[in-house]
Specification:
With about 625 residues, the protein is α+β, with helices and mostly antiparallel strands. It is built from 20 helices and 13 strands. It starts with a helix and ends with a helix. The strands form 3 sheets. Strands 1, 4, 6, 7, 9 and 10 form a 6-stranded antiparallel sheet that branches. A 5-stranded antiparallel sheet has the order 3-2-5-11-8, with no helix packed on it. Strands 12-13 form a two-stranded antiparallel ribbon.
């Protein structure tokens, strides 16, 4: 009888446990991962098919990825090695040349299959579309004469000893997760947010510690820019001697922008200089430190924890904090400023509304002014947050009868004057070291430091194929669909790792887009149904700024450099947090928690099984 009552009460949890266990076994344990290392001169498509002995190759058992000139490492998931005896690759979808450096196949329960040495590469058998192939110490070179070159490779997967203990441990975790007493979770007030952020912080720290140097987008140029500030306080002139290693293949250095992330990261790393270990890891820990600071604020901001929910809905956000880049510092700054503005108990609110001594008031105003200056000096795509905040201020002014007092205006003036002085000082210093012909100096430096295919003087037809697609004749429809801008953008916003080379299966991205669609639809419905004019106008401002961010990112990829990276959309995250905070009294906590919980679980899967599992580690 007790067993029957248990089943009646918890049958759905049992079903969920079975589905999770079966799904894990099917999609992870019974799938192989193919790691590729290739080199090409122009973007193309690499396809891989698999089959058993006596079975023909088919499109149903095939995967393809887009490969780029500046990216070497890729991975894709295929079927179960238990049923695979041969592989077929189509390394190009056009007439051209490619170098295959490494092909590695891995699956739980099987010994790795490595194709890297000269003798191993010679096992590839050309089938069609091949003009010539040769193998040397640099890999397998393939020259095709049409768009369908094919090479076959026979493999012999060797099973490993039984790994049942590991599987049982994973299934036990699923069981615990399914039968936790969720009714006792602190859903009202979203008290679970800082605890989930702590868990994410542990994953971020793991990625930052274990992943190899420069296995993340443009990490090397960000790292060297931060290293410069370990011993310097002022930005250098363009192309200054000693800064050569801070320039990317495009001939651009982060030291020549107005961003302050590298300055603070460099000083942070210098403080940690006495610790043993690699220097690049100390710079990475700056972003990890920022995440834990946000977590601490989420613990303190009891009434505003909903503000930080957008940080939990995509693993790509977490990934930004796990290696050094300037976007993580920008997000940190915007979320801190958002908290100071919306939380009634924040230091900024106490500064504006409370009584302080004159000196404490002055110091507080200067501190807040420094934060505003940092935001004003961020990358241009974060300016849309500034536009959003200005629109919100205008909306409040015209929809509210409350007006600031003269004392409050004086306090705001202290913040504004401090911010303007810092920004003006940065601009004046830039003019001092670079003169008024800064643009010409940047072009000259780019001509000197960039690789030939990225030099401004290189004719368009000889430049890298990802440059200036619009000028090359690509229509907007061709750019969005044939170049797969929308497809790549959706994946790089919800889980892409390394140099945009490690991706999950498409079902994961479809699930994430579906859940994000529900999340946004809930926000829109809560914002427009039965709310005040101020809230409705704020929601419209958010929607307008979101569209402008997306359009600006697409325009830059179409007219300048094709870089469909989802992180360019992340300035919208603190805006969404502010909107959620503004409508927090109307939101059904359980409904939002359910959607956020599903997004969080899917994100954990992506970060662990795709990110940490695929990124090369020390």
């Amino acid at each position: 009888m007790n067993s029957l009552n248990f089943l009646k009460k918890y049958w759905w949890r049992l079903v969920l446990f079975i589905l999770l266990s079966a799904g894990y076994a099917h999609f992870y344990e019974n799938k192989a991962v193919v790691h590729l290392q290739v080199g090409v001169k122009s973007s193309t498509t690499f396809a891989l098919s698999w089959a058993a002995d006596g079975e023909p190759f088919s499109g149903e058992k095939s995967r393809q990825i887009t490969i780029f000139p500046r990216v070497r490492h890729y991975s894709l998931r295929i079927g179960d090695l238990e049923n695979i005896d041969k592989l077929r690759i189509r390394p190009l979808n056009e007439k051209g040349k490619i170098r295959i450096i490494l092909l590695r196949v891995r699956q739980k329960g099987f010994e790795p299959i490595n194709v890297r040495s000269v003798s191993e590469m010679q096992q590839f058998v050309p089938k069609s579309g091949i003009e010539e192939t040769w193998v040397d110490k640099d890999g397998l070179w393939v020259v095709s004469y049409n768009s369908k070159p094919r090479l076959d490779l026979n493999i012999d997967p060797q099973p490993k000893p039984n790994e049942s203990k590991r599987l049982y441990a994973i299934y036990l975790l699923f069981f615990i997760a399914c039968f936790l007493p969720y009714q006792r979770l602190p859903v009202q007030g979203f008290g679970y947010v800082p605890y989930l952020m702590m868990l994410v912080g542990a994953l971020i720290f793991t990625m930052a510690t274990l992943s190899r140097y420069n296995k993340h987008p443009d990490e090397y140029v960000h790292y060297y820019a931060a290293k410069y500030y370990e011993t310097s306080f002022l930005p250098p002139a363009i192309c200054a001697p000693g800064t050569e290693n801070t320039y990317s293949t495009y001939g651009v250095s982060r030291l020549n922008s107005y961003e302050t992330a590298h300055f603070f990261a460099g000083k942070f790393a210098s403080v940690l200089g006495f610790l043993p270990g690699d220097d690049y890891r100390k710079v990475r820990y700056f972003n990890v430190f920022l995440w834990f600071l946000l977590t601490a604020v989420a613990f303190v901001a009891v009434q505003s924890r909903i503000l930080f929910i957008p940080l939990l809905i995509s693993p790509q956000i977490w990934y930004l904090f796990s290696y050094f880049n300037s976007e993580a510092f920008a997000l940190f700054s915007l979320f801190i400023f958002s908290y100071l503005v919306v939380d009634e108990r924040s230091p900024l609110r106490r500064y504006l509304n409370g009584a302080m001594s004159r000196w404490r008031q002055l110091l507080a105003g200067i501190a807040f002014g420094v934060l505003v200056a940092i935001i004003l000096l961020l990358k241009m795509n974060f300016y849309f947050y500034i536009i959003f905040m200005m629109l919100w201020g205008v909306i409040v002014f015209f929809t509210s009868d409350v007006r600031p007092s003269k004392i409050q205006l004086r306090k705001v003036a202290v913040i504004a004057v401090t911010a303007v002085c810092i920004v003006a000082g940065r601009v004046v210093w830039d003019q001092t070291v670079n003169g008024f012909e800064k643009r010409d100096r940047k072009v000259a430096c780019q001509e000197k430091m960039a690789e030939p295919i990225y030099k401004p003087s290189t004719p368009l037809h000889e430049q890298a194929t990802e440059l200036r697609l619009k000028q090359r004749g690509a229509s907007l429809a061709d750019f969005l669909f044939n170049h797969k801008y929308l497809s790549i953008m959706s994946r790089t916003a919800t889980g892409a790792y390394g140099y945009l080379e490690y991706f999950a299966h498409w079902p994961y991205y479809r699930l994430m887009l579906f859940l994000l669609g529900i999340f946004l639809a809930m926000g829109v419905s809560y914002s427009f149904y039965g709310t005040s004019l101020e809230v409705k106008l704020l929601a419209l401002a958010l929607m307008a700024c979101s569209v402008m961010i997306a359009v600006a990112a697409a325009w830059m990829s179409w007219t300048s450099v094709f870089q469909p990276q989802g992180r360019y959309l992340f300035p919208v995250l603190p805006m969404i947090g502010i909107m959620l905070h503004r409508i927090r009294e109307r939101i059904h906590a359980w409904a939002l928690t359910l959607v956020v919980g599903l997004l969080f679980v899917a994100s954990i899967y992506s970060f662990l099984w795709i990110g940490l599992n695929s990124i090369p580690k020390i």
